[in-house]
Amino acid sequence: MLTLYTRPNCPLCEEAKLMLKLIQEDFPVEFKEVNIEEDDRLHEKYMLMIPVLEQEGKILIYGNIGYAEILEALGY
Q1: Which residues form the signal peptide (predicted)?
Q2: Measured between alpha carbons, how far is 17 from 73 in angstroms, rounded to an integer?
Q3: Which of 11, 51, 55, 63 could form a disulfide with 16 if both were Cys (CB 3.0 to 4.6 A apart)?
């Protein structure tokens, strides 16, 4: 399970979500979205990095997250 850290009004976050949904059409990828604005600790940790894609506590990619970058990070 992947975790996508986002916040409202974030165009890069929307793009990352779209890329993950496109990947889900071809690969068995599950993700949950977490709004960093709802948790002070997460907000402080990720506010300058979002969107952040994480797997099992390890940051895979952050910032401008594209289709190819996600596939590469997941080993596809």
Answers
A1: none
A2: 15
A3: 51
